[in-house]
Amino acid sequence: MNDEKKEKTCNGYEAMYTFLSEDDFNKHLEVCEACAKEHARMQRVSELIQEAKPYIKEKQKQSRILKSAAAFFVVAFATLSIPVYMAGANMYDNMVAQNTLTAQELGFPVDEYGLLYVE
Ligand SMILES: [Zn+2]
């Protein structure tokens, strides 16, 4: 029953991620194939964040920084995506497929375990 609404309510993954509440965003993913696909890519970043979580959990105030880091990833991806989409979707897909997207490869500081290092 949501089929009618799914396209016209979507303003693009970044916009939906930014402006919807977590619940609404998750609901949107269920009805919007494009965003669901994009979200799958973003999950790789989330996995990195999740791996880093136990490491920094001792210092609880850093969870706020962690969310900032996640937001930064989203912004960075959104920014990088624009020129790459213009260069061609195939190129983008190849790049994503071949890129393991470790924090280190993305140029972010990592600790000795290769996890995202948050100061
Ligand atoms: Zn969407």
Task: Write up this protein.
By secondary structure, the protein is mainly alpha-helical. It has one domain (13-98). Helix content is 65%, strand content 0%. It has helices spanning 13-19, 22-31, 33-56, 62-87, 89-98. Helix 2 crosses helix 3 and helix 3 runs antiparallel to helix 4. Zinc ion binds next to helix 3.
Name a few traits of the molecule.
disordered N terminus; single chain; 119 residues; globular; 5 helices; mainly alpha; binds zinc ion; 65% helix
Which helices and strands appear, and what pairs or packs with what?
Blueprint: H1 13-19, H2 22-31, H3 33-56, H4 62-87, H5 89-98
Helix pairs in contact: 2-3, 3-4
Bound molecules: zinc ion.
What is the total domain count? Answer: 1
Helix content: 55-70%
Helical segment count: 5
List of distinct ligands in this structure: zinc ion
How many DSSP-defined strands?
Answer: 0
SSE string: HHHHH
- The low-pLDDT segments are 1-7
Structure classification:
mainly alpha
Gyration radius, rounded: 16 Å
Mean pLDDT score: 72
User: What fraction strand?
Assistant: under 5%
Query: Tell me about the biggest sheet?
Result: none
Broad shape: globular
Give a concise summary.
This protein is mainly alpha-helical and 119 residues long.
